[in-house]
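Structure tokens please, single chain.
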Amino acid sequence: MLGDLLPVNEVFESLQGEGHFTGTPSTFIRLQGCPVGCPWCDTKYTWPVEPADERPWPKILAKTEQTNSTYARLTISQLIDRASAKHIVVTGGEPAQYDLMSLSATLIELGRRVQIETSGTFPLRVDSRAWVTVSPKLAMPGGLTVKAEALNRADEIKHVVGKPADVEALKLLLDALPERKAIVYVQPLSGSAKATRLCTEAADANGWRVSIQTHRLIGVR
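Here you go.
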């Protein structure tokens, strides 16, 4: 329903910096709330959903580069009115906690392309035409498991790699998906030279691709 409310931390314009749509001008809709608990997460301010952090929606839409846990509950109609780019990225937090069917379907019917970025730890409630990016979060402090149904639905799988064990974990995950359709990316943890070399070697050996956080390199959000 277009009147359904979603907790939104921020809405902003930038370039998609990772994966298949790298370089694409995008509207980012960042939803609040994430129980996964990744230690290296660069958006930890999106984790809590506390009543004390809720604000009127104009204050949230006025955010520029603030990185705090304040959020507003916006209707899907309000979000659509503020999604100006042709490519819409719904991220978080963990957006798959929420039913995104109406938001994604309505945007697509309006001629937008919708990309969902998720950890794969929740069932996906999203239009079948949406592009799904799963960054599988394995053995994280939140104790959630990556769901096979999310991996099978994925259009791309983007895995953070910092050590050889991360590559082996990804191989095991993919071996359980013999009919997967997803493009596979490995992304160097924190962009370190060591992790980048490891990703390059793994991509070469396994037919994967390397995803670099290009938005950080060029200084955009």
